[in-house]
Amino acid sequence: MPRAPDEDLYKPNRVESKPSRFGEASADANQDNTVLEEIRNMTKVLHQGFTLPKRGLPQFDGNPKEYYQFMRRFEESVMKQVDSPSSQLEFLIEMCSGEAREAVKSFSIVNPPSLGLNQALEVLRQKYGLKHTIVKAHLDCITRGQTVKSDKQSLYRFASVLHNCAVTMKAWGFESELDSSQTLRSVSKRLPLHLQRKFNDRVNLHSEGSFTTFELVAFVKEAAARSGSFFGQILAETETTSKKKVNSRKERFSPPPVKNRRLVW
C-alpha cells in the first residue's frame, strides 16, 4: 500500500529552524539557575545537619511532667530548622520512646505528611499535655513512693522535686490542692521517721491551713544541710540500725507460711 504523502512537504518556502545565539544563552542561563538551586538545597541540608540535634535527643517517654519542656525543645530544634513536614514528623517519632512512641508512630503513613504531623502532635497533647494530667503527675510524684533516705543527697533531691512541683502548681493556680492538709500529710509520710516527728512539731506551731509546701521545701533543705554534719550522720545510722532491728524482729516472730493441705475424706 503506497505511503501517504507528507503534507508538510507541499508547504511552500519551508525553512529548517536553527537555534539562535539568544536561545543558546537562555538555555545556559536556565542550566546555571538549576545548578545554583541544587547548591542552595545542598547547603540548606548541610546546615540543618549541623544545627539539628542528634536524632533521638531529647527523648520523651510519656511523662506528663516533661511534656512542655519536650515540646519547647522540639519546636526550637526541629520545627524552626526543618521545612519539610515529613522530616518534622520523622524527627518527632524518633524523639519519642516507650508509650509515647507507640502513640504516634502510626502517623508516619498518613498523607499528606503535614496532616500526620498535626494529628501526632494533637495525640501527644491530649494524652500528656492537658493541665489536669500534668498536675496529677506532679502530685503523684511527691505523695507516692518509698520513704526518702536520711542522707544529704537524697533529701536535697526530694526537696528539688517538691520545689518543681510547687512552682508548677502555683503557676497554674492549684495552690489549694498543693497546700491541702491531705497533700502535706501524704508528703510528710515519705520523710524519715525522725523528720516526720520534727515536721509534725513544726506544723503544730502554725494555725490550721497556714503551712505551705514552700515551707515544707525549706524544712527538707534544712534537714538535708543538718544530715551532712557529723551528728546528722550518726542520727541517720541510728535510724537505719533501728529499722533493721524492727525488720529482723518481725521475721523472727512471723508465723510460718501455711501450706495448702489436701483434705482426705
Provide structural commentary:
The chain is an all-alpha fold. Among the domains are: 64-129, no CATH class; 135-242, no CATH class. 65% of the residues lie in helices and 0% in strands. The chain contains 12 helices and no strands. The chain has helices at residues 21-51, 67-79, 85-94, 98-104, 113-128, 131-143, 152-171, 175-178, 181-188, 193-204, 213-227, 230-253. 18% of the residues are buried.
Share in helix: 55-70%
Distance between the termini: 111 Å
Order of helices and strands: HHHHHHHHHHHH
Average pLDDT confidence is 77
Largest sheet composition: none
Low-confidence blocks of residues = none
Radius of gyration: 35 Å
Which term fits the overall shape? elongated
Beta-strand content estimate: under 5%
Total count of helical runs of at least 4 residues: 12
Number of strands: 0
Structural class: mainly alpha
